[in-house]
Design a protein that fits this description.
The complex is a heterodimer of chains A (about 625) and B (about 80). By secondary structure, chain A is of the alpha+beta class. Chain A contains 28 helices and 17 strands. The longest helix of chain A is centred in the middle third of the chain and has 21 residues. The two termini of chain A are about 25 Å apart. The model of chain B has no long low-confidence stretch (mean pLDDT about 95). The chains are: A alpha+beta (about 625), B mainly beta (about 80).
Chain lengths: ~625, ~80
């Protein structure tokens, strides 16, 4: 095969057995890769009703056909499993260099099953793979683990590891690769911890075999040149200031979540946004493999109580650990970000849980004696303390470790968890951004912005702007973008470049450039429509898993704060999210029943009918 | 009439004093296009335009006291 390696590595931890399997060429074509392979194998092999932290759950780590190639941003992999935080599917995505190394080792995916009796790590050196004891690494931070593993395997090896948070089954623990890149969402790190798997270490140095190198090179050159041409007069904001520059877009539209989504504008925003980060703490921009943008931030806090060095913060972290907690101390939230990276926590759910606790404290539901400290809005020192306590499940950290949904329910105020399907929202308040509300509510993993991000066209002007306040036009756009993001994730690309350069620059975002690159790499001869259909297939397959796990139409919902409490001030003042009005037409155009179930006709059209019945 | 301008990232390069937030005097019945002309922002430079927090474009009419926000299109967050 070309583009694809044609090989799946299966690792049974219960039996300590490792085997290779061939990748079915038809599955490769229909599901493209990465996120597509994740849902394909999860539906075939995992009972949707299983205990996410039990040995019957599996983890699929998969690269796409463009991962590890010279395609712009061909750096991504996806971790798919059943989430312990939500009980739904999760498919968490990360870049860096580990995914390219996985692909260059000759594997499209690793399927991890069972549970090891003792801590182990998986060492993949090209086409050889073995499990090794990891007792000496248990309890170590992600950075310590990365250092140790590269020391005992190979200096050029790349790692994906869990920190103490994953070991202690914190429900939003992340898998950290290349030290500071995160497959962060919905507790993939806890699933790895439940299997006693500390790390995966890969050395891969083979070139990905391309079907038509000349066609691939032509497409690659064309889109890289388009990037260069545009950026001549328009320096990429994400390269110059990192994703934290996005605060400008959310604050100016009045959708920058503040104090657990009680407000949509934050008075301290200028202290924590991208340009301030650049001025105060930026050391250098850091790209992932094959990326021309370089949005990653290497930062250093030179002195003071939060002195340290690491990567971040990203926009989502600035929201979750910043405005959402009322914190305008950039050093404190950056330090808490470093802690999350080293302990292996999702910064979004960590910040969201603290914000929820702060509101419970404000409302008198949660007492200082229960937390062990006062917890007023804006307490930067508390962020750092609570992050450490959560990773170790120490005292009140043990409650935060269960996430904001369980926290709010525990104190009798479930409506104060800002979640969809139990997954904490990203940094966009849907009251001033209607499409985001529909995207959160219908995302198969819950409140993520990365399942068809309407912020691009509603807030950020890419590829062209649309009105964030209208809701009537959003159902078809959200569906189209959800399918597009499925394609981008499946191909092994990053949305940052893809949405700007590899799709037609209108709201219907036909994936023309992605198709050219896929065809050059795989020789599959896809049409853009066929690629779009693969994205729709992946999205519907994820929906089927979700429904089989017990989720219903009632779970396509948002908290009452978002749908009933009008935004109190700012550009979105007086607005609520019109979710119910959007859901009905959305289901219809998706070919789903009024209960949100894909119709038999739709399943047949997508080739999912047999699989659904089987 | 006077309007308030807020510029960010590379759009700040066109602010007269280098400060992102400033006041600009315009003729009565000016539009956003007059702001671009006054700041000498080249046609090749892309910008997301908000007037008083609402999406706008070059043709949007301005009134005294309006707040105009200009920032580059962003690849995501």
């Amino acid at each position: 095969m070309h583009g694809w390696c044609g090989k799946i590595l299966r690792v049974n931890l219960s039996r300590g057995k490792i085997s290779n399997e061939a990748l079915d060429p038809q599955v490769a074509r229909d599901y493209i890769g990465a996120r597509g392979f994740g849902i394909y194998y999860l539906r075939r092999e995992v009972d949707p009703a299983c205990d996410p932290l039990g040995p019957e759950n599996k983890i699929v780590m998969a690269a796409g056909p463009l991962t590890g190639t010279a395609a712009p941003t061909g750096a991504r992999y996806v971790v798919t499993t059943k989430s312990p935080l939500t009980g739904a599917i999760t498919c968490s995505n990360s870049g860096g260099n580990f995914p390219a190394a996985l692909k260059k080792s000759g594997h499209d995916a690793i399927i991890i099953e069972g549970r090891s009796a003792e801590p182990v790590y998986l060492w993949i050196d090209g086409d050889r793979a073995e499990l090794r004891p990891a007792g000496h690494l248990w309890g170590k931070t992600t950075h310590e683990t990365d250092d140790a593993l590269r020391g005992e395997t190979h200096a050029k090896a790349k790692t994906a590891v869990i920190g103490p948070a994953g070991e202690k089954l914190v429900l939003f623990a992340a898998i950290m690769n290349d030290r500071d890149r995160a497959a962060g969402r919905a507790g993939v790190g806890a699933v790895m911890g439940s299997k006693n798997l500390k790390a995966i270490v890969v050395r891969g140095e083979s070139e990905v075999c391309l079907a038509d190198p000349a066609a691939f090179k032509a497409a690659n050159t064309k889109y890289r040149e388009a990037f260069k041409a545009k950026t001549r007069d328009n320096p990429p904001p994400l390269r110059v200031h990192g994703t934290a520059i996005t605060v400008v877009g959310t604050q100016s539209h009045g959708v920058f979540p503040t104090r657990n989504f009680q407000q949509g504008t934050f008075e301290g925003w200028e202290s924590i946004y991208g340009e301030t980060l650049t001025r105060k703490y930026l050391v250098r921009a850091k790209p992932c493999f094959s990326c021309p943008i370089a949005c990653g931030r290497v930062t250093r806090i030179p002195d003071g109580p939060y002195q340290g060095e690491g990567e971040g913060p990203e926009y989502e972290t600035v929201y979750a650990l910043g405005s959402d907690c009322g914190v305008d101390d950039l050093a404190a939230l950056t330090k808490a970000n470093y802690e999350c990276n080293e302990l292996g926590l999702d910064t979004i759910s960590m910040g969201s849980a603290i914000a929820c606790a702060m509101e419970l404290y404000e409302k008198g539901e949660l007492k200082e004696s229960e937390i062990g400290m006062p917890l007023p809005w804006g307490d930067g020192a508390a962020l750092v303390k609570l992050t450490r306590m959560t990773a170790q499940r120490e005292a009140f950290g043990n409650i935060l470790a269960e996430g904001s949904r369980r926290l709010a329910a525990r104190y009798g105020r479930p409506e104060l968890a800002m979640v969809a399907k139990g997954l904490d929202f990203a940094g966009y308040d849907p009251r001033g951004e209607q499409g985001m509300g529909l995207a959160y509510a219908t995302s198969p993993i819950g409140g993520s912005h990365m399942r068809g991000d309407p912020a691009y066209f509603e807030l950020l002007g890419v590829p062209v702007p649309a009105d964030p306040h209208t809701w009537e036009d959003k159902p078809p756009l959200v569906a189209k973008w959800q399918d597009l993001f499925s394609v981008i994730d499946a191909a092994g690309l990053c949305v940052f470049f893809s949405v700007r350069y590899l799709v037609e620059q209108n709201l219907m975002v036909k994936p023309v450039g992605i198709t050219e690159l896929l065809n050059g790499a795989t020789g599959a001869g896809y049409s853009p429509e066929e690629v779009e259909r693969a994205g729709e297939r992946i999205f519907n397959a994820e929906r089927l898993f979700l429904l089989a796990a017990g989720f219903t139409r009632q779970d396509d919902s948002l908290p009452p704060r978002i749908t009933r409490e009008p935004m109190p001030a700012g550009p979105a003042k007086g607005r609520v999210c019109r979710l119910e009005e959007m859901l009905v037409p959305y289901y219809k155009l998706r070919g789903w029943t009024s209960e949100g179930v894909p119709s038999q006709a739709k399943l047949k059209e997508l080739g999912l009918l047999k699989e659904a019945q089987g | 009439m006077k309007v308030q301008i807020h510029t960010f990232a590379n759009l700040r390069d066109y602010a007269p004093t280098g400060r992102g937030n400033f006041e600009l005097s315009l003729a009565a019945r000016a539009t956003v296009a007059h702001v671009f002309a006054a700041l000498r922002i080249p046609a090749t430079v892309e910008a997301v335009i908000l007037v008083n927090g609402r999406r706008a474009d070059q043709t949007t009419p301005l009134a005294a006291g309006d707040e105009v926000t200009l920032f580059p299109p962003m690849e995501g967050g």
